[in-house]
Amino acid sequence: MKVKGIALFSGGLDSSLAFKVIEEQGIDVLGITFETPFFGAAKARAAAGRIGLPLTVLDITEEHLQMLHAPRYGYGKNMNPCIDCHTLMLKIAGRRMEEEGADFVFTGEVLGQRPMSQGKQSLAVVAKNAGYPDRIIRPLSARLLPETAPEREGKVDRARLLDIQGRGRKQQMEMAVHYGITSYPAPAGGCLLTDPVFAKRLRDLFDRHPDHSVRDIELLKVGRHFRINEATKAVVGRNAMDNDSIERLAVPDDALIRIAEVPGPTVLIPGGGDEETRLLAARLCARYSDAPRDQAVVAHCLRSGIGTSLSVLALLPEETARLII
Ligand code: SF4
After folding, report:
1. Which of 152, 278, 295, 310 is the most exposed place for a label (fewest CB within 10 A)?
2. Which are the contacts of 115, defined by CB distance < 8 A and separation ≥ 6?
3. pLDDT tens digit string along 89-122?
4. How many CB atoms neighbour CB 149 within 10 A?
5. Which of 187, 218, 244 is the last residue of a domain?
6. Do both 242 and 301 map to the same domain?
7. How close is the Cα of 195 to the center of ligand 1, in Å?
8. Are 256 and 283 within 8 A, CB to CB?
9. From the alpha carbon of 85, which atom of ligand 1 is closest?
10. CA 102 to ligand 1 center in whole angstroms
């Protein structure tokens, strides 16, 4: 029976090279990649198309969020729980391996490329915690790592795997030329959990709104965010595109506020807030609108189909700065 491998595929150069190294051993390869609100699959889809890798895209939002709330190995510099995230991805890829009757999972990881998550010990811990300590191959660094079952069983020729390590890219660039891979995205990037501004907003959401929805996470990607009080926040559009996104993401229970007759932001209070918080949000709305600073303006507030008008003065810059998340 033909040997089969599952590629955990990010779309970066290293995962494309790992695919080439395995494929040229005559092994059948199926790719798998993931989507959550924090990262998408566009890069992987495009790269898989270029190198001829059949790719399955799975939305793992639910499992990923569950892990993200309490990662066993904690977070990196921001809200990125990379060790737990890799473990989860390998676990799901391992499940796919079993479903497909495949022999192993492989990744484009390179030993020592990221000191925290790609050290020898981390790679071993992740494979073990994923439940497949002996079935995960890193073709680009395999000869520097312990032999795995498919290598022992003769399904994968260890001699044709590589011994790359460290952050340098020279060897990978040469391999890209050898395999005719001429177009590939820049390494790293693309995960919002590593973005400091997004991470701050996400931490605030997790701490203050543990019952949040996926929609609440989508809102974190839009506009400026303000904490009005422990229970209430406001999202303020920065431009027309933000305002459109805010309106698209709004649900009937939210409050939507705009200043009458002058250009300015749309402000959204998730869950609607109370009278006092709506008043403060309306003042925020006036602060970022073209309304005069020294006289009261009318703000329109819409909630559950009911409109009200509020007369407000723009919030002062120092008051605004105190509320920003
Ligand atoms: S950078 Fe993001 S997607 Fe990548 S392992 Fe870390 S948390 Fe997961």
Report:
1. 295
2. none
3. 999 999 999 999 999 999 999 999 987 778 899 8
4. 16
5. 187
6. yes
7. 11
8. no
9. 8
10. 25
